[in-house]
Amino acid sequence: MNGSPLDEVAGYYGGRLREHGATPQGVDWNGAESQFTRFRQLLKVLERDGPGSINDLGCGYGALLDEFDRIAPGQAYAGFDLVPAMVQEATARHGARPRTRFAVGAAPDAPADYGVASGIFNVRLDSSDESWWEVIVGALDSLHATSLRGFAFNCLTSYSDRPLMKPHLYYADPMRVFDHCKRRYSHQVALLHDYGLYEFTVIVRQDVHR
Q: For 162-184, what is each residue's pLDDT tens digit?
Protein backbone atom coordinates (compact mmCIF):
# COMPACT_ATOMS: atom_id res chain seq x y z
CA MET A 1 0.00 0.00 0.00
CA ASN A 2 1.33 3.39 -0.96
CA GLY A 3 -0.59 5.41 1.62
CA SER A 4 -1.84 4.82 5.14
CA PRO A 5 -4.63 2.27 5.61
CA LEU A 6 -7.15 5.04 6.25
CA ASP A 7 -6.09 6.93 3.12
CA GLU A 8 -6.62 3.79 1.07
CA VAL A 9 -10.03 3.18 2.63
CA ALA A 10 -11.07 6.79 2.02
CA GLY A 11 -10.18 6.33 -1.65
CA TYR A 12 -12.23 3.14 -1.78
CA TYR A 13 -15.34 4.78 -0.34
CA GLY A 14 -14.89 7.84 -2.52
CA GLY A 15 -15.05 5.53 -5.51
CA ARG A 16 -18.20 3.84 -4.23
CA LEU A 17 -19.88 7.22 -3.78
CA ARG A 18 -18.95 8.32 -7.30
CA GLU A 19 -20.34 5.08 -8.71
CA HIS A 20 -23.56 4.79 -6.73
CA GLY A 21 -24.26 8.22 -5.27
CA ALA A 22 -25.83 8.84 -1.85
CA THR A 23 -27.36 5.37 -1.51
CA PRO A 24 -26.68 2.33 0.68
CA GLN A 25 -24.53 0.96 -2.16
CA GLY A 26 -22.58 4.24 -2.13
CA VAL A 27 -21.36 3.36 1.37
CA ASP A 28 -20.84 -0.33 0.46
CA TRP A 29 -24.05 -1.82 1.86
CA ASN A 30 -26.32 -4.20 -0.06
CA GLY A 31 -29.51 -2.23 0.42
CA ALA A 32 -31.71 -0.01 2.56
CA GLU A 33 -33.35 -2.82 4.56
CA SER A 34 -30.10 -4.22 5.98
CA GLN A 35 -28.79 -0.69 6.54
CA PHE A 36 -31.89 0.13 8.62
CA THR A 37 -31.46 -3.11 10.59
CA ARG A 38 -27.92 -2.05 11.50
CA PHE A 39 -29.04 1.39 12.61
CA ARG A 40 -31.67 -0.10 14.91
CA GLN A 41 -29.05 -2.29 16.59
CA LEU A 42 -26.58 0.57 17.03
CA LEU A 43 -29.16 2.95 18.47
CA LYS A 44 -30.05 0.47 21.20
CA VAL A 45 -27.22 2.21 23.03
CA LEU A 46 -29.75 4.97 23.77
CA GLU A 47 -32.37 2.74 25.33
CA ARG A 48 -31.22 2.58 28.93
CA ASP A 49 -30.15 6.16 29.64
CA GLY A 50 -32.49 7.92 27.22
CA PRO A 51 -31.89 10.30 24.31
CA GLY A 52 -28.82 12.48 24.11
CA SER A 53 -26.33 14.00 21.71
CA ILE A 54 -24.47 11.68 19.36
CA ASN A 55 -21.25 11.45 17.36
CA ASP A 56 -21.54 9.38 14.18
CA LEU A 57 -18.08 8.18 13.16
CA GLY A 58 -17.98 7.19 9.50
CA CYS A 59 -21.25 8.99 8.88
CA GLY A 60 -21.22 8.63 5.09
CA TYR A 61 -24.03 10.67 3.58
CA GLY A 62 -25.82 10.94 6.94
CA ALA A 63 -28.27 8.06 6.57
CA LEU A 64 -28.29 7.20 10.28
CA LEU A 65 -29.55 10.67 11.14
CA ASP A 66 -33.07 9.87 9.90
CA GLU A 67 -33.44 7.00 12.37
CA PHE A 68 -31.71 8.96 15.14
CA ASP A 69 -34.19 11.81 14.63
CA ARG A 70 -37.09 9.39 15.01
CA ILE A 71 -35.76 8.05 18.31
CA ALA A 72 -34.20 11.23 19.71
CA PRO A 73 -35.83 14.23 17.99
CA GLY A 74 -34.05 17.52 18.46
CA GLN A 75 -30.89 16.05 19.99
CA ALA A 76 -27.51 17.30 18.78
CA TYR A 77 -25.81 15.27 16.06
CA ALA A 78 -22.26 15.43 14.69
CA GLY A 79 -21.09 13.30 11.77
CA PHE A 80 -17.47 12.61 10.83
CA ASP A 81 -16.13 10.92 7.73
CA LEU A 82 -12.77 10.45 6.01
CA VAL A 83 -14.22 11.27 2.58
CA PRO A 84 -14.83 14.99 1.89
CA ALA A 85 -17.43 14.17 -0.76
CA MET A 86 -19.40 12.17 1.82
CA VAL A 87 -19.40 15.14 4.16
CA GLN A 88 -20.60 17.37 1.33
CA GLU A 89 -23.46 14.98 0.54
CA ALA A 90 -24.43 14.73 4.20
CA THR A 91 -24.39 18.51 4.60
CA ALA A 92 -26.54 18.95 1.49
CA ARG A 93 -29.07 16.43 2.84
CA HIS A 94 -29.18 17.41 6.49
CA GLY A 95 -27.29 20.67 6.97
CA ALA A 96 -30.47 22.65 7.63
CA ARG A 97 -31.35 20.50 10.65
CA PRO A 98 -30.76 22.42 13.90
CA ARG A 99 -27.91 21.27 16.15
CA THR A 100 -26.32 19.33 13.31
CA ARG A 101 -22.87 19.46 11.79
CA PHE A 102 -20.62 17.35 9.60
CA ALA A 103 -16.83 17.39 9.40
CA VAL A 104 -13.99 15.53 7.72
CA GLY A 105 -12.09 13.49 10.29
CA ALA A 106 -11.05 10.08 11.57
CA ALA A 107 -12.29 10.75 15.12
CA PRO A 108 -14.86 12.94 16.88
CA ASP A 109 -13.51 16.39 17.67
CA ALA A 110 -15.67 16.92 20.78
CA PRO A 111 -17.51 14.74 23.31
CA ALA A 112 -21.15 13.71 22.97
CA ASP A 113 -23.42 11.59 25.13
CA TYR A 114 -23.09 8.69 22.69
CA GLY A 115 -20.91 7.56 19.81
CA VAL A 116 -21.71 5.15 17.00
CA ALA A 117 -19.72 3.66 14.13
CA SER A 118 -21.40 1.63 11.39
CA GLY A 119 -19.36 -0.34 8.89
CA ILE A 120 -16.08 1.50 9.31
CA PHE A 121 -14.17 -1.63 10.35
CA ASN A 122 -15.21 -3.81 7.41
CA VAL A 123 -12.99 -2.72 4.51
CA ARG A 124 -9.34 -3.42 5.26
CA LEU A 125 -8.13 -3.78 1.62
CA ASP A 126 -4.46 -4.92 1.74
CA SER A 127 -3.93 -4.49 5.48
CA SER A 128 -3.02 -7.58 7.47
CA ASP A 129 -5.40 -8.79 10.17
CA GLU A 130 -3.20 -7.50 12.97
CA SER A 131 -2.44 -4.11 11.43
CA TRP A 132 -6.15 -3.58 10.80
CA TRP A 133 -6.91 -4.64 14.36
CA GLU A 134 -4.70 -1.77 15.52
CA VAL A 135 -6.73 0.61 13.35
CA ILE A 136 -9.89 -0.68 15.01
CA VAL A 137 -8.45 -0.29 18.50
CA GLY A 138 -7.46 3.31 17.74
CA ALA A 139 -10.98 4.15 16.60
CA LEU A 140 -12.55 2.45 19.63
CA ASP A 141 -10.22 4.37 21.93
CA SER A 142 -11.46 7.58 20.30
CA LEU A 143 -15.10 6.56 20.72
CA HIS A 144 -14.52 5.68 24.35
CA ALA A 145 -12.77 8.99 25.05
CA THR A 146 -15.52 11.09 23.43
CA SER A 147 -18.68 9.20 24.50
CA LEU A 148 -19.99 10.26 27.89
CA ARG A 149 -22.70 7.61 28.30
CA GLY A 150 -21.75 4.90 25.85
CA PHE A 151 -20.93 3.89 22.31
CA ALA A 152 -21.86 1.21 19.79
CA PHE A 153 -20.26 -0.22 16.66
CA ASN A 154 -20.55 -3.17 14.32
CA CYS A 155 -18.17 -5.58 12.60
CA LEU A 156 -18.44 -8.36 10.07
CA THR A 157 -18.28 -11.66 11.89
CA SER A 158 -15.66 -14.38 11.63
CA TYR A 159 -18.60 -16.82 11.82
CA SER A 160 -19.53 -15.90 8.23
CA ASP A 161 -19.80 -18.69 5.68
CA ARG A 162 -16.24 -19.14 4.48
CA PRO A 163 -17.01 -19.49 0.75
CA LEU A 164 -18.72 -16.10 0.83
CA MET A 165 -15.94 -14.22 2.65
CA LYS A 166 -14.03 -11.65 0.57
CA PRO A 167 -10.29 -11.04 0.94
CA HIS A 168 -10.52 -7.23 1.09
CA LEU A 169 -12.92 -7.35 4.05
CA TYR A 170 -12.14 -7.86 7.75
CA TYR A 171 -14.13 -10.47 9.64
CA ALA A 172 -13.69 -9.89 13.36
CA ASP A 173 -13.75 -12.51 16.07
CA PRO A 174 -16.72 -11.48 18.26
CA MET A 175 -15.12 -12.97 21.36
CA ARG A 176 -11.91 -11.01 20.86
CA VAL A 177 -13.81 -7.77 20.36
CA PHE A 178 -16.02 -8.35 23.38
CA ASP A 179 -13.05 -9.23 25.58
CA HIS A 180 -11.17 -6.13 24.43
CA CYS A 181 -14.10 -3.84 25.24
CA LYS A 182 -14.81 -5.51 28.57
CA ARG A 183 -11.22 -5.29 29.75
CA ARG A 184 -10.33 -1.88 28.31
CA TYR A 185 -13.46 0.28 28.37
CA SER A 186 -16.24 -0.80 30.70
CA HIS A 187 -17.77 -3.54 32.84
CA GLN A 188 -21.03 -3.02 30.92
CA VAL A 189 -20.72 -4.50 27.43
CA ALA A 190 -23.35 -6.21 25.27
CA LEU A 191 -22.68 -8.38 22.20
CA LEU A 192 -25.59 -8.61 19.74
CA HIS A 193 -25.23 -11.40 17.19
CA ASP A 194 -28.85 -12.35 16.64
CA TYR A 195 -30.33 -10.06 13.99
CA GLY A 196 -29.95 -12.08 10.82
CA LEU A 197 -26.89 -10.47 9.22
CA TYR A 198 -23.30 -11.76 8.92
CA GLU A 199 -22.10 -9.28 11.51
CA PHE A 200 -22.42 -8.33 15.15
CA THR A 201 -22.96 -5.16 17.14
CA VAL A 202 -21.23 -4.26 20.40
CA ILE A 203 -22.73 -1.80 22.87
CA VAL A 204 -20.46 -0.33 25.52
CA ARG A 205 -22.14 1.57 28.34
CA GLN A 206 -19.71 3.73 30.24
CA ASP A 207 -19.12 2.86 33.88
CA VAL A 208 -20.56 5.40 36.29
CA HIS A 209 -17.12 6.08 37.76
CA ARG A 210 -14.73 6.50 34.82
A: 999 999 999 999 999 999 999 99
